[in-house]
């Protein structure tokens, strides 16, 4: 079945949580949100710390095979997440580039956001949703397990991060046919 990319990047909502298609208008608010935790960026493949934010944000906006979202709780910006590596012909995409302000971590926000994004991807015809996590990032790996994603293994030396670290990446996935068992 061919995936349908139209509509994939449209706004999503769950109560007070809104995912708005990433746009230039979100730059200042997300820059401030990302500056709330300057210590986290070394375990990300790309940095959104104040020094690197504008370059990284520009690259994200220009990405042809991605759809990004600014995440709001009420009127407050609380993070961002993206569909990456969208391959409609294969029915596969990745959800990543996710960041939440420290005050919203561990509150259930990630589950709500990922449920919205996974549901939309499946509704658009995608059959496989991937998550790629730095092997050093135990918090994100635990979050993937809570979502019901299957840990498929480690891709050794998969990428070089913005710090020059050669990263081992843990690959997780959820298949559309597994989604009811994953909590959706």
Written description of the protein model:
This protein has about 180 residues and is α+β, with helices and mostly antiparallel strands. It has a single domain, classed as Gcn5-related N-acetyltransferase (GNAT) (Aminopeptidase, 3-Layer(aba) Sandwich), CATH 3.40.630. It is about 25% helix and about 35% strand. It has four helices and eight strands, in the order E-E-H-H-E-E-E-H-E-H-E-E. An eight-stranded mixed β-sheet has the order 1-2-3-4-5-6-8-7, with helices on both faces. Strand 3 and strand 4 form a beta hairpin. About 30% of the residues are buried. The model has no long low-confidence stretch (mean pLDDT about 95).
Q: Layout of helices and strands, plus pairs?
A:
Layout: E1 12-14, E2 17-21, H1 27-34, H2 53-62, E3 67-73, E4 76-87, E5 92-100, H3 109-123, E6 128-134, H4 138-147, E7 150-160, E8 166-175
Characteristic key phrases:
Aminopeptidase; globular; 184 residues; eight-stranded mixed beta sheet; alpha+beta
What is this entry, summarized?
This protein has 184 residues and is an alpha+beta fold. Helix content is 23%, strand content 35%. It has one domain (12-182): Gcn5-related N-acetyltransferase (GNAT) (Aminopeptidase, 3-Layer(aba) Sandwich).
């Amino acid at each position: 079945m061919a995936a349908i990319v139209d509509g994939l990047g449209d706004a999503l909502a769950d109560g007070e949580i809104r995912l708005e298609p990433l746009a230039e208008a979100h730059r200042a608010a997300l820059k401030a949100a990302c500056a709330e935790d300057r210590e986290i960026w070394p375990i990300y493949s790309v940095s959104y710390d104040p020094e690197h934010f504008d370059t990284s944000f520009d690259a994200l906006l220009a990405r042809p095979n991605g759809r990004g979202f600014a995440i709001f709780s009420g009127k407050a910006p609380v993070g961002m997440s993206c569909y990456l590596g969208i391959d409609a012909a294969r029915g596969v995409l990745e959800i990543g580039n996710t960041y939440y302000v420290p005050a919203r971590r561990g509150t259930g926000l990630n589950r709500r956001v990922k449920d919205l994004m996974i549901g939309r991807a499946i509704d658009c015809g995608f059959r496989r949703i991937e998550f790629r996590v730095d092997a050093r990032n135990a918090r994100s790996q635990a979050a993937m397990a809570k979502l019901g994603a299957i840990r498929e293994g480690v891709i050794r030396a998969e990428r070089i991060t913005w710090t020059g670290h050669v990263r081992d990446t843990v690959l997780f996935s959820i298949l559309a046919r597994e989604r009811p068992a994953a909590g959706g």
